[in-house]
Each structure stands twice: as C-alpha cells, then as structure tokens.
Write a structure and sequence with these properties.
The structure is a homodimer of 180-residue chains.
Chain A (H helix, E strand, L loop, with lengths): L3 H14 L9 H8 L3 H7 L3 H19 L6 H14 L1 H8 L4 H24 L6 H24 L6 H20 L1
Helix pairs in contact in A: 1-2, 4-5, 4-7, 5-9, 7-8, 8-9
Chain A binds a DNA duplex (30 and 30 nucleotides) through helix 3.
DNA sequence: GCTCTGTGCCTAAATTTCAGGCACAGAGCC
DNA sequence: GGCTCTGTGCCTGAAATTTAGGCACAGAGC
C-alpha cells in the first residue's frame, strides 16, 4: 500500500499551515483541499492533534535522518538551523497555536538526540562518570532547545543562524574548559 | 475519490520519461517507482499505450486550457513553444519511440484547435466561404504541426522559438496578402 | 433559548489495492 | 530445434481503503 491519501493529507495540512495558524485550520479545510471524504481523514488519523503530532515528529525525524552523525557543536547548530529555516512559516504557525506543547516536546527530543551523538563521542573513554555525561547532555540539550524557543518567542526577528551560533560558541568554550 | 494512485502513476511515468526513452520503460518500472501493485496499474489503465495516450492528451489539454483564446500567429507560436519547452525531454522520449503516431495525432489536434481559434476570429464576417476558411485552417495547422516535427527530427538542435517564429512570419505575411 | 459550525464516532456499501495465479510473446542462449 | 528469462495482459478472491449518511456533543454567536 502506497498510502497516497495519507501523504496528501499531510501535504495539504502543511500547505494550509504555510497560509495561516493551526487554530484556523479545520479538518474540513484539509479534506476539502485534497478532495477526499472527511471519514478518510479519520481513517488515517485519530484526530487533528494526532496529525500535528505526526507532522512534527516527521520533521524531527527528517532532521535526525539528514544529520545522523553530528560531530561538533557547529554541525549541530547547522542541522537545527537548516530544519527550522526550511519550515519557517509552518513552524511559526504550529508554535503559535494550541499545539505548542507538542512542538516543544518533540523539539526537546530532537535536541537531545543530536546533542548526545556528539557529546557521547567527544567524551567516550575519557573517564567521565555516566551521570556527569547525562547532566552535560541535558545542559546542552536545553541550551539548544531554549535557543530556538527564545528565537520563536522573539517573533523570529533575529537571524536564527547568528543567534544560534552565538549560543553554540558559549557551549563550545564551556566544553573546552571541561576538557582541560 | 481523489485518485492519488492514478496521479502517482502518471507522475512516475513522466519522471522515468525524463530519464530514458519510452521503449525502455516497462509497466514494472512504473509500479516499482511509485510503490504499488502491478494490478493497480491495470486497474487504472488498460495498458501502457493507454497511459501514453492519456499523458499526451493531458499535455495537449493543458496547452489549450492555458491559452484558450489565441488571437494572433505570434501568440499561437508562444503557446506551442511554451508547451514543448516545458516538457522537452519527455516529448523527445515519447517521440523517439513506438508511440510517435499517438503523439503526432494529438499534436495535430492541438494545432488545429489553436490555429482555428484565431483564424476564425480573424476572418469572421469577412465573407469568406466556409470551405476556404477550412482549407486555410488546415494549411496553418499543418504548418504549425510540421514545424514542431521538423524540429524534433532535427534532434531539437535549433532554437525552437526562433525556428517557430520564422515559420509564423511566413504564415503572417501570407495572411496579410490574403486580406488585401 | 436558538442556530451554526466543527468534532469524533459509527455502520454499511462501494471502490480500490492487493497477492497469487494463468497463458502468451519475444529475446537470448545452448 | 530446444530452453530460460522477462514482460504483458488478464483473472480471481481477499484485504484494504474510501465513501455516503447518519449520530451526539461542544462551543460560539445571536
């Protein structure tokens, strides 16, 4: 089964999300946009939040798939910047809606994944205690996450790339201090 | 029914047609490309030639839809050039295959449609006998058609726009002579 | 109170896709 | 001449998907 309908629903949803906020998009809008029956929507997705969940998850998945091995703070920054910029309007409309929590949860997960890949590699076999490494990952995960959220709350006005790299520079100097 | 599968089949076919000649594309290739069962192909299309027929017909339809009222030789030229250039490789691969006849038949139809719209408007109520107008349309239809075919047979080497406009200039001077 | 719109769910019917088979044709090889 | 291999077009029945048409409920606006 090739599931073209499922894909079409997601495409329509993203298309509408590029036009207006999530809370102004109804199931009716989506099914009318891709020309299917309303029940077909409910066949594929439990409800609208489930679709949002999947869309966001898919984007985070894409981020991870595209950059499976991030080996430095800079690469991590580039990966997140790329994803955010590619879907700028959609992310804005999802974030400024009722699904902020879903987005934040998923973004947090993605940040953890990305951050832990390079931090684990960086400190592997250097005698760091597991709970210390966990704490370090947690710290950088939150910094990564917080940077994006802060930028979103600031109306996405600053240059995300500059903004994010500034945060990363701080992270990097901290890491270097740790290694010395 | 939104027929995403039917659309996907055509998209895959066009995609493959941009890669290699029609006679090197099998039904298997198409269904594998869009990830469906082979029988689903035969559910939507009688056979491969039927798909070719529909694709070509669709392209000609698009040409007509996009330029419903052509009012001069130049506009006619632009319309045909636009269509041909947009689908350059696909047309080349269809033309240089076993389906040349289908393509030629459809192109001929489209040329007739385009040519007749402006010629009928041009000579409406000028006392021209119907059979004379028909002959005139036929002449320009063939000129239009022949120009494209000649260009295709020449390996699409010349600039189609220049080439086609040269033919149209000849047509135009003929028409002006007719009106005097 | 009322209406209107949207949601989430349900059933039964219709449509579409699927797996797995068949005979046949043509190309290439022994 | 055989043979195998690939592709075509067709068929069946089962499974998956989409559909029409309904229902109760919630919230907004009047």
């Amino acid at each position: 089964m090739a599931n073209f309908t499922r894909r079409a629903i997601k495409d329509s949803f993203l298309k509408l999300l590029n036009q207006r906020p999530l809370n102004q998009i109804t199931v009716k809008d989506i099914v009318e946009d891709c020309g299917i029956n309303r029940n077909s929507f409910y066949y594929h997705f439990e409800d609208l939040p489930a679709l949002v969940e999947e869309i966001i998850g898919e984007h985070m998945e894409k981020l991870i798939q595209k950059h499976p091995t991030v080996s430095s703070v800079e690469e991590c920054a580039d990966a997140v910047i790329e994803l955010v910029m590619e879907n700028r309007r959609a992310i804005y409309h999802i974030y400024n809606s009722l699904s902020r929590d879903v987005f934040e949860r998923r973004l947090m997960d993605a940040c953890r994944y990305i951050v832990s890949t390079y931090l684990k590699a960086e400190f592997a076999g250097k005698g760091m205690a597991p709970q210390d490494l966990d704490a370090l990952i947690r710290l950088h995960q939150c910094a990564c996450f917080g940077s994006v959220i802060d930028w979103l709350n600031g109306g996405m006005k600053d240059d995300i790339a500059d903004y994010f790299r500034r945060v990363c520079a701080l992270q990097k100097s901290g890491l270097e201090a740790l290694e010395r």
